[in-house]
Amino acid sequence: MKKPNEAIGHAVSELLIGGIVAYPTEAVWGLGCDPYNQSAVNKILNAKGRPEDKGLILVAASIQQISSLLNGLPADQLAMLQASWPGPTTWVIEDYNHVYPAWVKGKHSSVAVRVTDHPLVVELCEAFGDVIVSTSANPSGRPPALSQEQAASYFGPSVGYYLDGPTSGSDNPSAIYSLDSGLTLR
Question: Which helix (H) or strand (E) holds 92?
Fold first, then answer.
């Protein structure tokens, strides 16, 4: 595995101490943290003013990073995931194997996951060694941040590290689909 660049190293250090990282995604800026650290997740929810029952999206560098979530899924569902990833598509997947904590899933038994193709986010997840939370960088009810400057104006020092880089230029945040029903949720 290649050594992460210095900025990625700083971002990973922030994740490891339970902090929040802001970073560019496919269309907007996101906020991330270690999904297994309840205190870190609560920091994001509090910063955004987001109710904990809504749940949060996770982002992965590869399908392999979420393989324990996908164990036991029918072949047709796996094929749908593989056809859309990596890319700006988020799938809501039943967490039959109880892989992710309740504080990430909110009131749901499922979890929303995206395998990204954004090079910086891929590098961040690979260097961290796991998925990270990926929620839009905006207080609830406000438009998502489209730049690092806008993210910083929303969150200032409550974000421990701002990972500089461009978005992928997509016009809209990722589409969200239910894997069980196939319905478009966003």
Answer: strand 89-94
Q: What is the tens place of the pLDDT at every residue in 149-166?
A: 999 999 999 999 999 999
d(CA 144, CA 27): 9
**For the chain, how many residues are written?**
186
Q: Rounded to whole angstroms, what are the CA distances from 113 to 18, 95, 108, 153? A: 21, 11, 13, 27
CATH code, 37? 3.90.870.10
CA–CA separation, 6 and 8 (whole Å): 5
Cα(40)–Cα(42) distance, integer angstroms: 5
| Rounded Cα distance, 23 and 147, in Å | 9
Question: Domain containing 136: what range?
Answer: 6-178
